[in-house]
Amino acid sequence: MSGGTLAHDVLVCDSVTRMGPGVRGHVAVAASHGGVFAVHLALTEGVAGLVVCDAGVGLERAGIAGLHYADSLGVPCAAIHHRSARIGDGADCAARGLISFANTRAVALGVRVGMPAMEAARCMAAAQLGAVDPGPSPGESRRVLPGTHGHRTVVLIDSASLVAEEDAESVVITASHGGLLGGRFETAIKLPVFAALYNDAGIGCDGAGVSRLPALDARSIPAATVAASSARIGDARSAWETGVISRVNQAAYALGAREGQGARDWAELMAAVH
Prior knowledge:
Strand content: 15-25%
Number of domains: 2
Distance between the termini: 44 Å
Largest sheet: 6 strands, mixed
Number of strands: 12
Structural class: alpha/beta
Order of helices and strands: EEEHEHEHEHHEEEEHEHEHH
Mean pLDDT: 95
C-alpha cells in the first residue's frame, strides 16, 4: 500500500498526510500528533479507527484534542505517550508505543491506558468499523501575514504538508511537530523556504520532536521549535501569538535566534534577514 504498511488489517504510517489511497475503512497507527487538524485529515481519508501520538499533550491539551473530536463522530481514537516511541515514525510507534489516552469509543472497544499501540489498533479493527464523513475542516489552515516593506513574508500554516511553491524564501510558521517522518532527512520540509518553525511535541522519545532541526541545518535553513506547553499543536496562529522558542538549530542561532524567545520575535528576526 502506498504511504504505509498494512498488517493484520492495521495500517502503519509515519503521518496522516502519507497514508495512501487504500486506507479507507481501515484502522491506522499514524505517527502524527493527536490534534484536531491531524485527526480530521485522517477521517477525511476514510480512517475508521486511529492511534496517534499525544505530542506531549501541551497547551490546552491540543495534542490529544482530536480524540474528543473523533468521539463526537463515533470514531475510536487513542494516543500513545510521546516518550514511549518516536513521533513521526510509524514503525517505531507500532513497535514501542504505549497508550496514554483513549476516547470513549475506543475504551468501549477494549482500549486501555498502558496497552501497546498495535494491541489497541487491533481492538478497533476487530470491531469491523466503517468510515465517516467528518465534513469540512473545523479551523483555519493557512494565513499569509501582511508584509513589512523590505522584509520577507511570514506564512502561518497548520501543517507542514501545506507549504506551497509561493512560500519559497518565506518564513513559515507551521503547527506540525518537529519530527522527521520515518527519520528521513528529506521530510524536514518539502520546499526551500527561508526559515521554518515547528512545535516540539514535548520533544519526546529519542528527541524525535525536534529532529527536523539538524536536518534543516544540513540544508542551510534556519529552524526552531516552540514548546508544546506554549502553543497549541496543529494551530499556527497559536504558535504566532503565544509560542515560546524551545530549540533552535545552528543556522537560526547564527542569525540571533535563542531559546526563550517569543515565536513572533523569532519570525520577525528571520523576516528581516537580507
